[in-house]
Design brief:
Layout lengths: L2 H12 L2 H7 L5 E2 L9 E5 L3 E6 L4 E3 L6 E2 L1 H8 L5 H12 L18 H6 L2 E2 L5 H9 L4 H9 L3 E3 L5 E6 L5 E7 L4 E3 L8 E4 L7 E5 L2 H11 L5 E5 L6 H15 L5 E4 L5 H16 L3 E4 L9 H10 L21
Parallel strand pairs: 12-13, 12-14, 14-15
Antiparallel strand pairs: 1-2, 2-3, 3-4, 4-5, 6-7, 7-8, 8-9, 9-10, 11-13
Length: about 325
């Protein structure tokens, strides 16, 4: 290893990606509610998200396939930097202290995620969680009952709803948590997919949304189409989500009626996510459609609550009424 290679490895070992994100202008902000000890979620504005992992030595973008080390990070933040420029910039960080690791989940060691799930009550009519989902979120009783029967939701503490993330074999991997005043994801759990089937049998249509509540909301608006699996990622797509997603894509691609629907939010981050889904569908020659919330709503729960407030019935979306591929790349 020559002197230049040795310096590169030294910079990789000594500088945290979190330090670069927090100190290069404009700085990124740590989202503590969405972070774990091994996965720090940083945001900048409404559309940019990066995850820092590997004890600060790596990063990845949940809204694209981009990932790398400290060198690829600084060149992503400033595409005009050459590799030599990146080296000179990082030398300025080498003598500075890394940011103090945040205390994200203080207290005693937590139980395994499956055991925590097993200790929570199933959703029951009239409970604080039922009231939150039915009144604050506008979810109809038939959808809440369907989610309960699928063991897709349980009652967490302080009126919070717990939504199951499961792998392709149905094993629980993590829990998306939503309450009246906060949201988070289970410490020690892995994001795969929240799933609610609209009917029995193998689905020909897969609708991908960003949150479990949005997935339940679209199911309500569409009348829980029996040909559809409503799935949510709890944000972007990490390695666990992609691993859970690939078998579903292969099954849909083998079905002549197979369709992938990006029902992500109507904001810049949602459009980037939809574009990534469109690219994945194209990679396996699968039909793709972009479905946007109606009436200018940002997400599907906003749309559902607007319908409830206006006392308008939620009109089911018939098969084949999705919007075409072009909008997925907006």
């Amino acid at each position: 290893m020559d002197q230049r290679d040795a310096e590169i490895e030294d910079l990789k070992a000594r500088i945290s990606c979190a330090a670069v994100l927090e100190r290069l202008p404009p700085p990124w902000r740590l989202d503590r509610t969405q972070s774990s000890r091994r996965s720090l979620k940083y945001r900048r504005g409404d559309a940019e998200i990066l995850i820092v992992n590997h004890d600060g030595r790596g990063w990845w973008d949940p809204l694209s396939a981009a990932k790398g080390d400290i060198f690829t990070l600084v060149r992503r933040l400033d595409p005009n930097l050459s590799f030599g420029d990146a080296c000179r910039l990082l030398r300025g960080f080498a003598g500075s202290a890394a940011p103090t690791p945040p205390v994200l989940f203080p207290g005693p060691a937590r139980l395994p995620v499956a055991e925590r799930w097993a200790r929570r009550r199933p959703l029951s009519r009239g409970s604080p969680v039922w009231t939150y989902l039915a009144q604050a979120r506008g979810l109809p009783e038939r959808i809440l009952i369907a989610a309960r029967l699928a063991d897709a939701v349980r009652e967490g503490p302080w009126g919070s709803a717990w939504f199951a993330h499961r792998d392709g074999a149905g094993a629980l991997t993590g829990i998306e948590m939503r309450g009246p005043d906060w949201r988070g994801f289970s410490a020690g759990g892995a994001k795969t997919l929240f799933r609610l089937a609209g009917g029995p049998g193998r689905p020909a249509r897969l609708a991908i949304l960003e949150s479990a509540i949005d997935a339940l909301s679209l199911a309500a608006i569409e009348g829980a189409r029996p040909d559809t699996l409503y799935a949510a990622t709890a944000g972007g797509m990490g390695p666990g989500t992609i691993a859970a997603f690939q078998p579903l894509l292969r099954a849909l691609a083998a079905d002549p009626a197979g369709l992938l629907v990006a029902a992500t939010d109507a904001d810049p981050a949602g459009c980037r996510f939809a574009a990534r889904l469109a690219a994945m569908a194209a990679g396996c020659t699968l039909e793709f459609a972009r479905l946007l919330p109606p009436d200018g709503s940002n997400d599907w729960n906003d749309a559902l609550r607007a319908m409830t407030a206006d006392h308008r019935p939620a009109r089911p979306t018939p098969a084949g009424n999705e919007q075409g591929n072009d909008e997925g790349n907006s």
